[in-house]
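Repro:
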Amino acid sequence: MKFKKLVTVEEAKRILSEIEIRPEKEDLKITEAVNRIIAEDILAPIPLPPFTRASMDGYAVRSESTTGASEASPVYLRVTGSVSPGAIPDVRVGKGEAVEISTGAVMPEGADAVVMVEYTERDGDMVKIKRPAGKWENIMKEGSDISEGSLIFRKGTRLDGIKTGVLSGLGIERVKVWRLKVGLFSTGDEVIDISQTISPGKIYDINSYSLYSILRLIGADPTIIGNLPDEITILKERLLKESENYDMLITSGSTSAGRGDLLYRVIDEEGELLIHGVQIKPGKPFLAGIINGTPIIGLPGYPASALMTFHELVMPIIRKSMGEKWKGWKVRGRILRKIVSEGRRQLYPVFVVRDMIFPVDKGSGAITSLSEANGYIEIPEGEEVVDKGSEREVKLFTPSTGDILVAGEDVLHLVESDYIVKYVISSAEKTMGMMIGGEPDVAVIPSEFDDGFEDFIAGRVEVEWGWVGDGKVAEWRDDTALGMETGGSGDIIQHFQALYWVKKGKRCAMVRPFAERYGLDVDVEGKVQYSILVNPERRDVEEVRNYLDDLRSSGYLEQEK
């Protein structure tokens, strides 16, 4: 069977926007409601501050009593008492009088200003005022921050830590938030839960756990129901049952039109199938429907397809159902590497460093397409090539982007830096090709490969390398400064891989600083010198400049050029 009808992305978004999603209101303590979406407008039950108070340590006075005061000609006032925070004043300030007061204390009756202690000098029961105070100076009047009955937060507002503090300052202990119950399950005979032992032909359920985390972050209440086999009777039974228990069901897998893809048949028979197929890659098998009044969203089985389709099509309607005004996190940048597309509309995973967009697509079946990405670009239908240097808008998965792009050897993982560093681990040959192509900010390669890159070298560092673990010595890979005993896992391109295999009882070579960072003893064999290359076009970029300073302070630019 073919797809019912392939719809455009715009048509899919229109259909989805018309689906009625009905979250419920839930009354929670504010400490339990963090990151949830407020379901009702919140009005201030009290003014804030709840009383007129001093905003500085000093003396509460009548402002008229300080007129003309100066260092040369101070005004003397009689001190008639004092007020501490939390106490009710039992004294009134009259003309020519002052009351000692602390920050946050209730202003005594009669006073309309506070003279800061720095402009006073105590002399027995008198105080010398060396500077005049204007009316209401150094005072916070009752309700000057928040007036009683005013709107604090609109419904649809996400409750974060700062907003929680505002509510607590108003004495609000509980708040009504939206509770959107979302049931998650994956389909397919090959899918198993992470609690089970992997075996040939089986794969772990990636999508349910990824979607669970994302839904929690956006304020929904997800539950992982479990995995369902490719058996239409069981699938139908569970869908009918769970549609009674949740406000929305989201599945992954079994959405296409093959023999084992059954979800669309169940929805077509038991409810209303609204979408079966969208003109986009990845995500063509996307479907949506309704059973027992409950929206059913069917995502493709491949993780990259499922998660990008969720971000593009499903997340907006979930946020909208809870009243949140959200337009997504977006940034514009330029493409670092040419992208070849198939000519149909495509969501393409990328990671962004500042204004640089680096493609990372490895196919919709590869989870690293997303683990290495922080967003995606949309390639319109008919565009077969996205040229290097062209500008694009990136839809981000999170609000932040990277600061520095580093390629080559992975030893810079050891450097402590305040920057968000994106690493592309590769051999010396590939790294030099990337640097020639103008891609990374910084690169690190064994120095024996740096001929012709003299203008790129910011400095060099020499470190010892040796073998870690027991067993037979194998070859040392010069291009990655790594090695492993015969019979290992094959190519090792990261020191972290070497650490892993050492823990498995293998013998691996690595540089001593890396091994020592993780508490391993090294049987030193020799030394290796690294060259730190810097893209000439980025040498004066502030983030790159400061990152080089981090390298110097960490000892990775010992021999500066």
